[in-house]
Amino acid sequence: MRSPLILAFCLISPLAWSADKNQVEVQVTSDPSGARVSMRSGQSCFTPCFLKLSRKRESLIIVSKRGFRTSEINFRPTRKQKKLHISLVAEAPPELNLGNSSSQKGTVWPSNAFIDNLKLPQREANAHDVAVIVGNFLYQHEDIPDVSPARNDAQLMRRYVIQTLGIKPENVIYRENATYGNLVALFGDASSSKSKLKSAITPGISRVFIYYSGHGASSGSSSFLVPVDGEPSFLESVGYPIDWLYLNLSKLEAIERTVVLESCFSGNSHAGTLIKNASPVVIRSRVTSVSDNVNAITATSRAQVASWDETSALSLFTKHFLLARAGSADRSPNGNEDEKVSNKEVERYVGDRVRQDALRLYDRQQNPQFVYVSY
């Protein structure tokens, strides 16, 4: 899928400075108009509109509109630059006819009001932290079903790491529909930890956050992330081993390492069996060892299916993880209402909500797993 081109133009405007000498009133316009503009400070409006911005530092401005790619712009006004215009780029239609197949294997869910209106906490940007976000939703092999919510999962998680974790947009490595080669380039392999992620961190200073939404599977004694060019009958050759991910992440000179996997490794998926005509018993996953310096969070327990939530157009675990981090986990009965969201509160909230919804909606078990270095 081609990367969208987002254009932002800063033009000269005769607008007056705010009464506060440290702030400037900036006019924000967009093409098309009616886009939602939001900031970490809590300011929000719909274009055309005005925002009060600091003249001493850059402000992250997020512009979104249904049917268009979200635009994120770091902007600092000056006396001559006090007008911001954003040209939004329309979402490309999903490519559903893949390979030699003439039939559509599935659909990729568009964004909706739940995603557009989810309010995430704001945090000051950190120049050294790094995130890798992968969303695999269009699989090339005709026997592998597509993952309908994975694009929304990845795009909303990108918003979360920028707004809530304070990771600068240029420090977010974002990849849709990653191939085996893409995953090796991102994380390294068994023989080398050299990778795009390793090159992006500042040793001894950076925190690292990794998120993956897409298929997972097991074959023989190993569990894998399934790349979009994967062959379901040869996963040991073309799947990306989870062990490689944890091993290479543990070697990074980072002060914190977190992995969140919106995937299951049972051989089943919400869209159907990953390996055609195979029994989940035959391809049951083993427990993958997690390095003791890595926070590892997965959407399911062994041999379970990672469910989807059609109402929110997200995967069920990702929906509740983001709601938890947005503050829901701090509320009673899961939290202590101290206006701080702890890892323990997130674990309780997400575990309860995912278990309840999976049973209510699909009559099946889903138990997210949380392994923290410390709480």
Task: Explain this structure.
This protein has 375 residues and is an alpha/beta fold. It has two domains: 7-87, Immunoglobulin-like; 113-371, Rossmann fold (3-Layer(aba) Sandwich), CATH 3.40.50.1460. The chain contains eight helices and 21 strands. The strands form six sheets. It has a six-stranded mixed sheet, sandwiched between helices. The chain has a four-stranded mixed sheet with strand order 1-8-2-5, with no helix packed on it. Helix 7 (316-325) runs antiparallel to helix 8 (343-362). The longest helix has 20 residues, at 343-362. The chain is globular and about 65 Å long. Mean pLDDT is 82; it is low at 1-19, 93-104 and 275-287.
What class do helices, strands and sheet pairing give? Answer: alpha/beta
SSE topology string: EEEEEEEEHEHEHHEEEHEHEEEEEEHHE
Q: For the CA atoms, what is the radius of gyration? A: 21 Å
- CATH level 1 class label of the largest domain: Alpha Beta
Distance between the termini: 39 Å
- Give unreliable regions as ranges: 1-19, 93-104, 275-287
Reported for the largest beta sheet, the result is: 6 strands, mixed
CATH fold name of the largest domain:
Rossmann fold
Number of structural units classed as domains: 2
Read across the widest sheet, the strand sequence of neighbours is 10-9-11-15-18-21
Topology:
Blueprint: E1 7-11, E2 23-31, E3 36-39, E4 44-46, E5 49-54, E6 59-64, E7 71-75, E8 83-87, H1 113-117, E9 130-135, H2 150-163, E10 172-176, H3 180-187, H4 196-200, E11 207-213, E12 216-219, E13 222-225, H5 235-238, E14 240-241, H6 242-251, E15 256-262, E16 268-269, E17 272-273, E18 295-298, E19 308-309, E20 314-315, H7 316-325, H8 343-362, E21 369-371
